[in-house]
Design brief:
With 105 residues, the chain is mainly alpha-helical. It has a domain of 64 residues. Helix content is 73%, strand content 6%. It is built from 4 helices and 2 strands.
Length: 105
């Protein structure tokens, strides 16, 4: 036989639990949105670095050779795992974000 929270702790305790639950759900949504925003900024930064490295590579900048190599190699190694279980290159995820907005993970 289940006992309601009102019986054990009084009517104020039940309201407090509901308010706490609502507050925590609200905070979770804020955190999820912050995560999506930061992920989008991260993807934008990575794609920008990749694009700049490609441009520098065209100019055969000897001073930047090591930097270009590290950025382009990192880009090839970094893959983003989407909900579908499929690995997608970061650049493709970035293009998706530009076209359709941030994916919901």
């Amino acid at each position: 036989m289940a006992v309601s929270p009102t019986t054990c702790f009084g009517p104020n305790a039940e309201m407090s639990i509901l308010e706490t639950n609502q507050y925590l759900r609200s905070e979770l949504e804020k955190c999820k949105q912050n995560f999506r925003d930061l992920t989008e900024k991260f993807l934008t930064s990575k794609a920008t670095a990749y694009s700049l490295a490609n441009h520098l590579q065209k100019y055969k900048c000897e001073e930047c050779k090591d930097l270009i190599k590290s950025v382009l190699e990192e880009e090839l190694q970094f893959q983003f795992l989407q909900g579908s279980g499929k690995e997608v290159p970061l650049w493709e995820v970035y293009k998706y974000c530009l076209k359709w907005g941030s994916p919901s993970w």
